[in-house]
């Protein structure tokens, strides 16, 4: 009997060691376990703007792919009919906790809205330009969960939980696909995908989840395409890349900056001469970018309404004219906000909000935990050197340039829409806006020389344990904040 127990124990230890060195297994274990924990630990409506995403998700589940236009108080507004009990649910769970670190959740609300019927036909018109500027494709996973809840006539709380679960399952599935396809940097991708802020978004109703997923999948396919020499596989990946690029084009406007990476694909994909192949590539890429531009033109009126509501007095056109008239001053504003970080500016919070701020920007991971995450990510990046393909310098410069364009585009968008004309401060920029493009940076860090050669298993175990520690501390901080 002792022999059997000993052998079983040794077998379990061996199997555990095998799992610890397989990035796909580690990601799946952490994403499912911590994702499920976060889903129920983070109260409904306690993720930035989750209420507007909930209304858009419900609208999508009703098959309404374009919002309804109505005149409200003499102004044209865009929205949809939402069950009154769902509106009450949103207001009760959001207020007064959101943005108020001193307030904790009233746990009685869970029991109340678990028993409260939805009453789908008792509705009211809710204006929602902020979320309706995004395409419905970003809300399909949530809408599937919500539609499932409707079949069973679920309560508002169950409806939101199922919508969140749909988002989580979608995110995990896309990340697993990326890990299976990636030709290198799998450990760095695991740490990147398990960014605590990304996980927070993945268990919410936010459309940001799909935006991140499509951007990561697009970047992964670009890496695969420029790494393989198998022409048959190249053509299959190229077709998939083209389909995903359309989804990226209909995501956030800054994601359009990723699309020119399609031109890095080898000309052998088309089995044509260089000039003809790249001509086709330019036309195809231009068409996909045109799709994104067309969408943004269609929703431009709603975007102006949303900007005016969120920041009264904002004048994007006037701000753009001011930048063009005095670009030197605009550059000075960027330097003061994000390089020297002068007093009264917001740039010092961007890195922190990339991986360490939860809720309505009112719940912070301790600084040392944020530093731990950066160290673990750095370790994972170092591990990929000498393991996998090595990209030419022109590719690396392309990856860096694209990410800088995404940074500049996000900052410009906030300066145009959320800052008074000529303001010295750029308001509204959050680190989570830069998550979708961050995977492209992985393509920069590779070489033919291994930097980590000895104690490889112990090194990977440190990465795994460090990632687990960051997520555990994040869960503790969330629990302390809300309960």
| Biggest sheet strand line-up | 1-2-3
How far the N terminus sits from the C terminus, by CA atoms, comes to 47 Å
Overall mean pLDDT stands at 89
Number of helices: 20
Summarize the structure.
With 483 residues, the chain is mainly alpha-helical. The protein has 20 helices and 5 strands. It has one domain (46-482).
Explain what this protein looks like in three dimensions.
The protein contains 20 helices and five strands. It is mainly α and 483 residues long. It has one domain (46-482). It has a three-stranded antiparallel β-sheet with strand order 1-2-3. A two-stranded antiparallel ribbon has the order 4-5. The two termini are 47 Å apart. The model has no long low-confidence stretch (mean pLDDT 89).
Q: Features of this protein?
A:
single chain; 483 residues; mainly alpha; three-stranded antiparallel β-sheet; two-stranded antiparallel sheet; 5% strand
Helix-strand layout with pairing:
Layout: H1 2-20, H2 23-41, H3 50-61, E1 68-72, E2 75-83, H4 84-94, H5 108-115, E3 123-127, H6 129-132, H7 140-151, H8 156-181, H9 186-193, H10 196-202, H11 208-225, H12 231-249, H13 274-298, H14 300-310, H15 316-325, H16 327-338, H17 350-355, E4 357-358, E5 363-364, H18 367-383, H19 393-418, H20 456-482
């Amino acid at each position: 009997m002792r022999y059997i127990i000993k052998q079983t124990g040794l077998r379990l230890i061996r199997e555990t060691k095998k799992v610890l060195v397989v990035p796909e297994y580690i990601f799946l274990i952490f994403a499912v376990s911590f994702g499920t924990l976060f889903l129920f630990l983070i109260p409904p409506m306690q993720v930035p703007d989750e209420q507007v995403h909930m209304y858009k998700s419900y609208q999508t589940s009703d098959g309404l792919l374009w919002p309804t236009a109505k005149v409200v108080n003499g102004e044209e507004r865009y929205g949809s009919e939402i069950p009154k009990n769902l509106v009450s649910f949103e207001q009760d769970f959001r207020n007064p906790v959101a943005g108020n670190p001193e307030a904790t959740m009233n746990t009685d609300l869970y029991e109340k809205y678990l028993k409260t019927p939805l009453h789908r036909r008792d509705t009211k018109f809710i204006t929602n330009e902020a979320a309706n500027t995004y395409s419905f494709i970003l809300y399909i996973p949530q809408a599937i969960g919500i539609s499932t809840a409707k079949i069973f006539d679920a309560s508002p709380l169950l409806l939101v939980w199922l919508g969140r679960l749909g988002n989580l399952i979608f995110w995990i599935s896309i990340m697993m696909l990326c890990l299976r396809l990636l030709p290198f940097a799998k450990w760095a991708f695991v740490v990147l995908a398990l960014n605590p802020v990304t996980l927070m978004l993945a268990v919410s109703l936010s459309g940001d989840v799909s935006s991140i997923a499509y951007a990561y999948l697009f970047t992964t396919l670009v890496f695969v395409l420029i790494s393989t020499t198998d022409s048959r596989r190249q053509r299959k990946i190229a077709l998939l890349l083209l389909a995903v690029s359309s989804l990226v084009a209909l995501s956030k406007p800054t994601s359009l900056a990723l699309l020119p990476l399609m031109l890095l694909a080898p000309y052998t994909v088309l089995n044509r001469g260089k000039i003809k192949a790249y001509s086709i590539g330019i036309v195809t890429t231009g068409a996909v970018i045109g799709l994104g531009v067309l969408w943004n033109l269609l929703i431009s009126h709603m975007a102006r309404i949303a900007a005016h509501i969120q920041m009264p007095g904002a004048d994007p056109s006037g701000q753009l004219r001011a930048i063009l008239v005095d670009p030197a001053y605009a550059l000075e504003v960027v330097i003061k906000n994000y390089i020297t970080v002068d007093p009264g500016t917001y740039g010092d919070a961007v890195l922190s909000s990339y991986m360490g701020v939860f809720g309505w920007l009112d719940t912070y991971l301790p600084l040392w935990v944020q530093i731990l995450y950066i160290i673990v990510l750095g370790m994972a990046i170092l591990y990929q050197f000498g393991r996998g393909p090595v990209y030419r310098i022109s590719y690396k410069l392309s990856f860096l340039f694209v990410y800088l364009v995404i940074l500049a585009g996000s900052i410009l968008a906030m300066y145009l829409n959320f800052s008074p004309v000529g303001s010295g401060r750029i308001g509204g920029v959050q680190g989570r806006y830069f998550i979708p493009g961050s995977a492209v940076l992985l393509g920069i860090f590779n070489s033919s020389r291994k930097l980590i050669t000895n104690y490889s298993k112990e090194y990977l175990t440190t990465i795994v344990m460090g990632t687990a520690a960051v997520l555990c501390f994040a869960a503790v901080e969330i629990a302390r904040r809300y309960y």
